[in-house]
Amino acid sequence: MKDRSVALLACNTYGRTTLKEIIDALLKGLFYSIPYGAKIFLKPNLVTGVRRDGLACTNAEFVACVAEWFVDHGAVVSVADSPAFGRCSQVMNACGMTSALKGLPVARLDLVKKTRVVLKCGVPVALSTDILECDQLINLPKIKAHCQMLVSLAVKNLFGAVLGCQKALAHMRYGPSDNLFAALLVDLVSILPEGVTIVDGIVAMHKEGPVNGEAFHLGIAAAGRNPVALDTAILKILGIDACLSPLWFECQRRGMTGTDIETISFPLMRPASFHVQDFTVPSVLDPIRFQVGRFIHNGLRKLFNLNTFEKSPFS
Asked: Has residue 120 been placed in a domain?
């Protein structure tokens, strides 16, 4: 969390040959390495399988190329997320990730084992034991507008470590206090295993989100050890006032390393090298809340293992 390096590169394709070169260059730019045999957990954004174009999720080819990089470097690799409703394996099938990972020695998990933790803000949560027990957590967010948090970037993507229905419960119990909910998310940064964040910003989502937005060809891939510094850099590239982001504002309020753009180092490209126009985020944020009726309805769907997905902003 004290690291101030953010690696940025332009990338306009999900073609594997190019993408593998980009990922390798990003990680070399950070001087990132892993010990042979390290237990690596890849955590993409797998919010829902309701969109068959996969736009709401981290791109399947992007995840597969990251997985291949770690396999090639001798790691033992697992991949999963904890959707608010539905099983991870169902979402992976729907967005093409199961097919993309075919042939790679990568464990595709449904997160069920939980460890109860009380966060610094006083909120108890059930976190994925599989994530907590890995050697390195590889955070793989997709750049998206977000109806409640303005944007979904590196810090927001860590919410996927909270097990599915626990997300809904957190929204119901702590949603009325937007500050407490932001504090809950930011507390996850320091409690989860260290690793690196690699951001899928090749085709982003704007206007609405995190599910119902539109494609925006951003053409960016980024990486960093510090998710706060990454978020600061991406907000700068997008031309968004960082203070409008509840999560960034909470990080800045705490004085966390990475909120001052002037102190971030860029070993590859700099934010000024990207000229982004018309990336649109919500002008008014929705209240952070969750409807009890929807919680019960979707809980029953999950219980009976129906292959359907409810639109959800919780991952």
From this structure: yes
Q: What is the CATH number of the domain that holds 49?
A: 3.40.50
Contact 223, 11 (CB under 8 A): no
| Other Cβ atoms closer than 10 A to 257 | 15
The pTM is what? Answer: 0.90
CB 202 within 8 A of CB 59: yes
The helix/strand/coil state of 312 is coil
Alpha-carbon gap, residue 216 to 195, rounded angstroms: 28
Tokens (6 digits) for 176: 């009325």
pLDDT in tens, 75-108: 999 999 998 767 899 999 999 999 999 999 999 9
Alpha helix positions (H), the chain: 16-29, 60-72, 88-95, 97-100, 129-132, 154-157, 164-174, 178-191, 227-238, 246-253, 292-303
